């Protein structure tokens, strides 16, 4: 075999390896996609499609209720400081991430994650003290919107607008799907 034939053989082998690799990648992606779909196997205790739909509706209602609880807790901070509402506000959905991705569309999961990301950042920035506990005392004048109290009220006003937009997007996405 001359060098040209060896080179062509090596190129052919490289192309074959690339094609096989692409084929295996496609199979892997197809399997991942199949895993992401909600199926009866995910809920073996469900006997018919109606129960499956009811579970999905319950999960949607649970997430929406928690989102509304957070929105309400933040909105209350725009007029006065209500520590207990922030303390009681959910820190996450309480639903397994895998189940979330099976029940909600990727766009809805993105909205849900953004909602909690914004709230938890607000909580960290304005409510959590240096020692990691929830603040109960804020400096400044609430009415004059000065000091930490004023910053909290301003941040709460801004966050409510962002949360309302995300809630609206979430509900609109849900109407489109259902």
Q: What do you see in this structure?
A:
The chain crosses the membrane at residues 6-27. The chain folds into two domains: 1-36; 40-177. It is built from six helices and no strands. The protein has helices at 3-36, 49-76, 83-88, 97-103, 106-127, 147-177. Helix 5 packs antiparallel against helix 6. The mean pLDDT is 86.
Look at the structure and give the mean pLDDT: 86
* Main sheet specs: none
DSSP summary, beta strand count: 0
Distance between the terminal alpha carbons, to the nearest Å? 66 Å
Element-level helix/strand string: HHHHHH
The total tally of domains equals 2
Specify the structural class: mainly alpha
DSSP summary: helix tally = 6
Helical content class? over 70%
Give the overall silhouette. Answer: elongated
Summarize, please.
With 178 residues, the chain is mainly α. The chain has helices at 3-36, 49-76, 83-88, 97-103, 106-127, 147-177. 72% of the residues lie in helices and 0% in strands.
List the helices and strands and how they pair.
Elements (H helix, E strand, L loop, with lengths): L2 H34 L12 H28 L6 H6 L8 H7 L2 H22 L19 H31 L1
Helix pairs in contact: 2-6, 5-6
Keywords: Membrane, Transmembrane, Transmembrane helix
């Amino acid at each position: 075999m001359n060098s040209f034939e060896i080179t062509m053989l090596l190129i052919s082998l490289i192309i074959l390896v690339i094609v096989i690799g692409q084929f295996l990648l496609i199979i892997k992606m197809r399997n991942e996609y199949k895993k992401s779909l909600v199926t009866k196997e995910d809920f073996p205790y469900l006997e018919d499609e109606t129960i499956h739909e009811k579970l999905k509706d319950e999960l949607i209602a649970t997430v929406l209720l928690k989102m509304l609880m957070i929105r309400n807790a933040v909105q209350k901070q725009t007029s006065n400081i209500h520590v207990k509402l922030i303390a009681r506000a959910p820190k996450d959905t309480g639903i397994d991430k895998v189940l979330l991705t099976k029940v909600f569309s990727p766009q809805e999961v993105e909205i849900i994650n953004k909602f909690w990301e914004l709230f938890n950042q607000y909580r960290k920035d304005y409510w959590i003290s240096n020692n990691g506990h929830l603040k109960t005392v804020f400096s400044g004048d609430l009415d004059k919107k000065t000091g930490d109290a004023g910053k909290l009220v301003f941040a709460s006003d801004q966050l409510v607008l962002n949360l309302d937009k995300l809630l609206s997007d979430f509900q609109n996405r849900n109407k489109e799907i259902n």
